[in-house]
Amino acid sequence: MTETHATPATGAPVFPPGRYGRRREPGRRRPLLVALLAVALVAVLSLIAVRLYRQYGDPNYDAQVITYTGITDSQVLVDFRVTVPEGGSAVCLLRARDRAGAEVGREEVTVAARPDQRQVTTQHRLATSARPFVGEVVRCRPPA
Fold it and tell me: Which residues cross the membrane (predicted)?
């Protein structure tokens, strides 16, 4: 008969043979696969960030509505200021909404600055299909 100690001398537990099934070997790590997945994730997130910046974050084409007046059943006059690169131009999307928030008019307007200007102030008459409540500039972008 052999002696069995309550605590084994090594750090690993000792199980009776055949009693608990086969023990798994420690899995081998795949650092190359993990690195490739990390690079792919960074690339996808970078593409998303660039697209969102182009859509919403270009400070060279910033628009502010000064006022909207001349509201009738078929139009609104929108006064707005656009910041563009010096001497550049921009295409701005204007829209009118009714009291319920439904869009009743939309139009793209091109504005151009003089060679020494960065800001352009302009007024545009936006035709509508119903009486508008508000006139606004949705966004401005560089001309195509």
Answer: 32-53
